[in-house]
Amino acid sequence: MAWTNQRNKQLVERARKVIPGGMYGHQSAAILPDVFPQFFSRAEGARLWDADGNEYIDYMCAYGPNLLGYRHPAVEAAAAAQQRLGDSMTGPSEIMVDLAEKFVSLVTHADWVIFCKNGTDATTMAMTTARAHTRKRKILVATKAYHGSAPWCNPNLTGILPEERAHLVPYQYNNPASLQDAFRANAGDVAGLFASAFRHDVFEDQDLPTREYAETARALCDDSGALLIVDDVRAGFRLARDCSWSKVGVQPDLSAWGKAIANGYALSALAGSEKARAAVQTIFVTGSYWFQAIPMATAIATLHEIEHSDYLEHTEKTGSMLRDGLARQAASYGFGLRQTGPVQLPMILFEDDPDLRLGYCWVSEALTRGVYFHPWHNNFICGALTENDVQMTLNVTDQAFAALKKRRPTLGPVEQLQARFARMRA
After folding, report:
1. Are 112 and 272 in contact (CB under 8 A)?
2. Nearest CA-CA partner of 68 in 53, 89, 46, 39
3. Which terminus of the chain is more solvent-facing, meaning fewer CB atoms within 10 Å of its CB: N or C?
4. Is 149 within 8 Å of 25 (Cβ atoms)?
């Protein structure tokens, strides 16, 4: 079937009449290339079909929740079994206890866990718990780091009061001296330090945490009494069968989880050490759908696969195959390609491409041939992606590089990004 986006265009026009802007949030396609679909019809394994029926090898994994593969059989069986019993009830199912026990058994630093719905829920609870534990105000956050969409951490300041962010203190990720300066400038009033699993800022190369940075963060928190918080919402269980910072040998006091822990079902979590147990019991947090049983059942099934399958080693292998193949192709066509971060969460950017015109053209050419990459957000590798899928992807990207080389002299600035870059420069 020839690629088309007519149905998607019709849906976008209908949506604009009844949904402000037609779409909102991080899944809005408004500043993606024009060919990118906004609406999808189904997903299976590592494949995605848009509203027009176009099939893609999907490297966004629903922006992270797809860890094992869309509609993973064991996960879907757990959902169906729990559906026959109940989902939202007056109180939680007993499987909440089963899930908590399983989660705590996998995450080394965790003595307890609280479940919620979104990553923002978990990070906001972490901040509140740190303040309850320390009776202090300041929260250290890395410059440009994303910790959710609540007023205290939203990257868009429209409608947000300065007072809501008055006690946030910036520091530079992977910079021990910057951390030390931030603690020194706010001595006696630091409640918590947020650290992403790795630096995954949009539009920029990614960085894994250095051991020096992680150990400095741990030492500064220990010396001051502040709580060390690892935001593992994006990377949790993609880098390790434990908190991601276990790879650098540092254990946090609190960790925020989401996206992949129930393989696409709505669930997130705040995990903590014994040190923070008394404090978290004093804060009030809740949600009408936080105690749904179906996502908890799917999380148990997902954690079982995490513990007993080779999903982690498999995604490392396929991610490395993709990275190596793309590097060879880019060089053969005369392009410099920057592939950074873990191979399971690859960021793919072009050298000498400050306005992303090369990247936008390349992902557009790949998309219309059946491969979905993101031009400025990190991508994701799921456990259902096969070596044959990677080879099919590389066949497509080879054609995309050839098309990009041909079109390069005629490419102009990316219209969708001009206002965004202007705001960033301001």
Report:
1. yes
2. 46
3. C
4. yes
User: Quick check: 394 and 326 in contact, CB under 8 A?
Assistant: yes
Statement to judge: residues 39 and 81 lie in one domain: no
Could you report the per-residue pLDDT of 3-52, keeping only the tens digit for each? Answer: 999 999 999 999 999 999 999 999 999 999 999 999 999 999 999 999 99
**How far is Cα 132 from Cα 282, in angstroms, rounded to an integer?**
7
Segment 319-350, tens digit of pLDDT: 999 999 999 999 999 999 999 999 999 999 99
346, 277: one domain = no
Residues 339 and 378 in one domain: yes
Same domain, 176 and 142: yes
252: domain range? Answer: 73-308
Measure the CA–CA gap between 329 and 327, rounded to whole angstroms. Answer: 5
What gap in Å lies between CA 198 and CA 235, rounded to an integer?
8
Question: C-alpha distances in angstroms, 409 versus 75, 142, 216, 331, 358?
Answer: 48, 38, 48, 18, 10
Q: Please state, in angstroms and rounded to a whole number, the distance separating the CA atoms of residues 224 and 192.
A: 10
Q: Do 277 and 191 fall within a single domain?
A: yes
CA 173 to each of CA 168, 207, 236: distance values in angstroms, whole numbers, following the listed order: 15, 9, 19
Tell me the C-alpha distance between 80 and 261, whole Å.
Answer: 18
| Domain assignment present for 1 | no
